[in-house]
Write a structure and sequence with these properties.
The protein is an alpha+beta fold. A hairpin with a 3-residue loop joins strand 4 and strand 5. The chain has 3 helices and 7 strands. Helix 2 packs antiparallel against helix 3.
């Protein structure tokens, strides 16, 4: 059973599980900005977060629940604009392989 959220009209929206792969230059504060955009601006719930760094570059794999799929492309584009972020890919939605970058996701879903 998925998480649900009531909107103003009383209908229930079901959250989808979204997996993202984010890669970039490991600069001071870049992860904080990424997490801030995702959690505060787009209000997603993280279920898994894995970050690795070699000191120069980082990779971040995120699994999160998202209610408003229309905002996924916009969130990816906003993440891509953060200084130091080079790649933002949607890898899965509800377990279905996507393998597309944020620009492709936005154009397909607009």
């Amino acid at each position: 059973d998925g998480q649900s959220e009531h909107n103003k009209l009383g209908s229930t929206a079901v959250a989808k599980v979204v997996n993202l792969y984010i890669k970039g230059n490991d600069t001071m504060g870049v992860m904080m900005r990424i997490l801030q955009v995702m959690s505060e601006e787009y209000r997603i719930n993280f279920s898994d977060l894995h970050v690795t760094s070699d000191g120069n570059h980082f990779t971040c794999e995120v699994e999160a629940s998202m209610f408003d799929m229309d905002k996924l492309g916009k969130m990816c584009m906003k993440l891509r604009k953060i200084g130091g972020v080079n790649t933002v890919n949607v890898t899965k939605i509800d377990g279905v392989e996507m393998r597309c970058d944020c620009e492709t996701f936005v154009s397909v879903n607009s």
